[in-house]
Design goal:
homodimer, globular, transferase (chains A, B), metal-binding (chains A, B), metal ion binding (chains A, B), prenyltransferase activity (chains A, B), Isoprenoid_synthase_dom_sf (chains A, B)
């Protein structure tokens, strides 16, 4: 497998799967809300890497291979992720005007619509996961576990809590524990959920869920450390979003606390530990391992 | 029953039930997010009338009377309603600084925290409904139906869609159909959901759900028409929020299109129709009927 494996094509295959589904599912429902749907779709199809869907599919692939069964769940998580980006970019939050090389949602549609598009995408994520017509092959207990854990990882105990701590600590000197809280909650919670979700949908046992959750949390933290590094070492053109934005927003980062070299070492160590977590799955975990490696090698 | 029935005490009884539960459930979880929880709790306990919980309990009471079973669902809906108020009041939306006689969330905690508090309350509503530990007596299919329909009524096909249409039509001349779309989606969708939810949790059949849904939609539309009327005829002190805010935001209202008298007649007709919808339940629907009457008699 490893000789012929091409990560780029692999990601593209699953990204297309989820994109096709979202394009067909999220349609203009009413003449009064055309602009709202337009705004939701703008950010949803603004060129995201689909890392979260690909993690879900890859984790699920360890257990089963009915990938179409997973697609609405992968789409739901991507919708939720997109809502978080739209709200994070708002003037009252990170005040970013560029995302994936394009104007952010509120620049295109105005703040009010951007807030509502985020609200609607968040709400729709739950609607999609809990829709029995869209998910005829998902047992009820699995559906509930998937949606409940999404809320837990995305709400005030998870992602939103991390975003709050991030905003709330802007301009303040912070310690490693606080920075780690922010990164784990803001980014790693949702990524660990994605990996666990694959095990949930694939009927893995509690040990499987725990392993994949840990894998996701470690690559999530590494992902965020790399983000901090790239924010310093890259240009706006390379990133597709404004470089040096952490400095602009007076945000504490790993490189600031530990320096560049030590930060790179920490990211590398986390990736090694993550891969170790899932080594028991041997070849079945191959795509996940390749994704983990890609996370520290990426340049944008 | 009717001779001894006191609507105020009845509402207070159920409002206390849901308030007690929310106070115990929504607790400070982590030192890094104390301010976020504080902001969520501020708006949650800012003196709301608990109309939505009371509708859920009252509708459920037609079928069963294990009211404690319903409480987490009533709390979840109140959390979702509170999120919608926080986001509606934001400067980019209705820009209101007063709600229930108190400063709005963003005035107290800043815009960023207000946006996140709303996001967290919305997410937590789903978490509460889907939590098996909190809801040991709710069958899985009922849990899914309740949470799925909440998303459908609250998202872009429901409440958020209505809010978008409202904002998007500010300052424009609009026709009755558009105004009706806004009112139905912005307000009546969630109220009709509340009434249907009572039937869902009480194991009502599809006819029961439809009847109570229709009842809720009609009182919801009447509620919004009365809101429009009160916005014109009341003072800020009476309302606990800024009076004449529709005019300030150049919003079309029923009185503006139909005049005050005709608007009052329309509200009265909707309440009569709503009561007719549930007349089949006879005495069991008595609290709902009293609530319907209260909606057009209220002064704030």
């Amino acid at each position: 497998m490893s000789n012929n494996f091409n990560l780029k094509n692999y990601i593209k295959f699953f990204a297309n799967k989820v994109d096709d589904w979202m394009r067909n599912n999220l349609v203009y429902s009413n003449k009064h809300t055309v602009g709202l749907l337009e705004s939701m779709r703008y950010s949803l199809f603004a060129g995201g890497k689909r890392l979260r869907p690909v993690l879900i599919y890859s984790s699920y692939g360890i257990f089963e291979s009915y990938f179409d069964k997973v697609t609405p769940f992968a789409a739901a998580v991507e919708m939720l992720h997109t809502y978080s980006l739209i709200h994070d970019d708002l003037p009252a939050m990170d005040d970013d005007d560029l995302r994936r090389g394009k104007p952010t949602n509120h620049i295109m549609f105005g703040e009010a619509t951007a807030i509502l598009a985020g609200d609607a995408l968040l709400t729709h994520a739950f609607q999609v996961m809990l829709d029995k017509d869209l998910n005829p092959d998902i047992p009820e207990n699995i559906m509930i576990e998937a949606a409940f854990k999404l809320a837990k990882h995305a709400g005030f105990e998870g992602m939103v809590g991390g975003q709050y701590a991030d905003i709330n600590n802007e301009g303040k000197p912070i310690d490693e524990e606080t920075l780690s809280f922010i990164h784990i909650h803001k980014t790693a919670k949702l990524l660990s959920y994605c990996c666990e979700l694959g095990a949930i949908l694939g009927f893995g046992d509690e040990t499987d869920k725990k392993r994949l959750h840990n894998f996701g949390e470690k690559i999530g933290l590494a992902f965020q450390i790399v983000d901090d590094i790239l924010d310093i070492t890259s240009t706006t053109e390379q990133l597709g979003k404004n470089a040096k934005s952490d400095e602009k927003n007076s945000k504490a980062t790993y490189p600031q606390i530990f320096g560049l070299d030590e930060s790179k070492k920490k990211a590398k160590k986390l990736i090694d530990e993550a891969i170790e977590e899932i080594s028991v799955y041997d070849k079945a975990a191959f795509p996940l391992i390749e994704i983990a490696k890609y996370i520290i090698e990426r340049t944008n």
